[in-house]
């Protein structure tokens, strides 16, 4: 039962690759409920989680000397100051060694050598290994997040395109109205053209009738005048002509004697 | 009563997602804030059934996990803590044998 967590810790970072929602302890940052942004180009992603209520801590609890929790040192601080816990540790180890409760047998010297190696490994190689593992974890998380964000982006684009198609369909309605107006205008134009044709036809017929009447009148007048003149000329006898001529001479004499 | 069930007092509508490190029973003063003379009465108030004891062990394990193992950027601290813990435990259970390997007779 003890070894399984140690073996698990050996594959610590792969174990951490599984998504794990955790409690909100003092270490956790507050929960952010920002909506995911749709990146045109890949920018810094906002820390977006659905509001699950739990969030995973980023930094572990502080430890001193590699494994002793910081709270144990702070527990002593109010009573004994900064050096308290270290003095306590020294005194305790001194007691254990001097009373030989902790026996310095050959296992102890093996442990001492292993401790030295562990110390140098963890101080020299530790930070570098930690950084590279953190980087690989971040890349893995980033690929997952990017997949999620890209999918959200795809859906947002689909929504946008659907709205665009709706807008275009409404534009079709306007197009239909414009076409109807166009046809109505054409009909009106043809109506007016035909109306003018009718008008001209009717006017032509009426003009013809007018001209006809006028020419008939002229012909009637001409013949009537000719007939009247002929009759008058026929009724003038030679006696009448002599009488009129004598009268005319007398009238001229009367007028010329007056002036 | 079955293994792996949620505690009786857990209510998802009230408490939200299940947090294995949280005690869902009746609220009581935390152990670190007790006065010395209250320890007996405090201990009397806790339920001492086996399932309650297992629940306490599980909460201890999960609190240690949440603090030192599960965060995103842990260091080597939990490994060393388990190392030292198992070293002391096994030294303690083998102490009878170790007594005979003492180098000096009088201390």
From TrEMBL, chain A:
Key word Glycoprotein present: no
Single Gene Ontology MF annotation: proton-transporting ATP synthase activity, rotational mechanism
GO terms under cellular component: mitochondrial inner membrane; proton-transporting ATP synthase complex
Keywords: CF(0), Hydrogen ion transport, Ion transport, Membrane, Mitochondrion, Mitochondrion inner membrane, Transport
Similarity comment: Belongs to the eukaryotic ATPase B chain family.
PANTHER family in the record: ATP SYNTHASE F(0) COMPLEX SUBUNIT B1, MITOCHONDRIAL, MITOCHONDRIAL ATP SYNTHASE B CHAIN
UniProt function note: Subunit b, of the mitochondrial membrane ATP synthase complex (F(1)F(0) ATP synthase or Complex V) that produces ATP from ADP in the presence of a proton gradient across the membrane which is generated by electron transport complexes of the respiratory chain. ATP synthase complex consist of a soluble F(1) head domain - the catalytic core - and a membrane F(1) domain - the membrane proton channel. These two domains are linked by a central stalk rotating inside the F(1) region and a stationary peripheral stalk.
Assembly and binders: F-type ATPases have 2 components, CF(1) - the catalytic core - and CF(0) - the membrane proton channel. CF(1) and CF(0) have multiple subunits.
Protein name: ATP synthase subunit b
Protein species of origin: Vanessa tameamea (Kamehameha butterfly)
Gene: LOC113404211
Automatic annotation (TrEMBL), chain B:
GO process terms (BP): proton motive force-driven mitochondrial ATP synthesis
Coiled coil region boundaries: none
Subcellular location: Mitochondrion membrane
GO MF term set: proton-transporting ATP synthase activity, rotational mechanism
RNA-binding is among the record's keywords: no
InterPro entries in UniProt: F1F0-ATPsyn_F_prd
Keywords in alphabetical order: ATP synthesis, CF(0), Hydrogen ion transport, Ion transport, Membrane, Mitochondrion, Transmembrane, Transmembrane helix, Transport
Pfam families, per database record: WRW
GO cellular component: mitochondrial membrane; proton-transporting ATP synthase complex
Membrane-crossing segments per the record: 74-93
Family the UniProt entry places it in: Belongs to the ATPase F chain family.
PANTHER family: ATP SYNTHASE F CHAIN, MITOCHONDRIAL-RELATED, ATP SYNTHASE SUBUNIT F, MITOCHONDRIAL-RELATED
Protein known as: ATP synthase subunit f, mitochondrial
Organism: Vanessa tameamea (Kamehameha butterfly)
């Amino acid at each position: 039962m003890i070894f399984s967590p140690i073996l698990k810790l050996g594959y610590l970072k792969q174990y951490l690759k599984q998504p794990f929602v955790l409690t909100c302890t003092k270490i956790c940052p507050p929960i952010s409920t920002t909506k995911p942004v749709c990146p045109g180009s890949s920018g810094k992603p906002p820390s977006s989680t659905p509001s699950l209520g739990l969030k995973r801590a980023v930094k572990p609890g502080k430890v001193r000397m590699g494994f002793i929790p910081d709270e144990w040192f702070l527990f002593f601080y109010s009573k004994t100051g900064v050096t308290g816990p270290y003095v306590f540790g020294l005194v305790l180890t001194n007691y254990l060694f001097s009373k030989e409760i902790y026996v310095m047998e050959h296992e102890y010297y093996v442990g001492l050598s292993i401790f030295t190696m562990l110390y140098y490994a963890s101080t020299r190689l530790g930070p570098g290994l930690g950084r590279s593992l953190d980087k690989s974890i971040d890349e893995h998380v980033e690929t997952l997040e990017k997949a999620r964000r890209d999918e959200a982006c795809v859906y947002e684009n689909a929504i946008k395109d659907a709205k665009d198609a709706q807008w275009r369909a409404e534009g079709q309605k306007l197009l239909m109205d414009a076409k109807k107006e166009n046809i109505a205008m054409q009909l009106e134009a043809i109506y007016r053209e035909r109306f003018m044709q009718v008008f001209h036809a009717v006017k032509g017929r009426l003009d013809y009738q007018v001209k006809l009447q006028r020419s008939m009148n002229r012909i009637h007048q001409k013949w009537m005048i000719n007939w009247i003149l002929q009759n008058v000329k026929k009724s003038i006898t030679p006696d009448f002509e002599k009488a009129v001529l004598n009268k005319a001479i007398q009238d001229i004499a009367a007028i010329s004697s007056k002036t | 009563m079955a293994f792996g069930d949620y505690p009786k007092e857990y209510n998802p509508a009230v408490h939200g997602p299940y947090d294995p490190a949280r005690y869902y029973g009746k609220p009581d003063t935390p152990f670190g804030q007790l006065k010395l003379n209250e320890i007996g009465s405090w201990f009397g108030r806790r339920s001492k059934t086996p399932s309650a004891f297992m629940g306490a062990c599980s909460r201890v394990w999960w609190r240690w996990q949440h603090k030192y193992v599960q965060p995103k950027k842990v260091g080597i601290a939990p490994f060393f803590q388990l190392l030292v813990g198992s070293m002391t435990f096994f030294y303690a259970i083998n102490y009878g044998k170790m007594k005979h390997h003492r180098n000096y007779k009088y201390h």
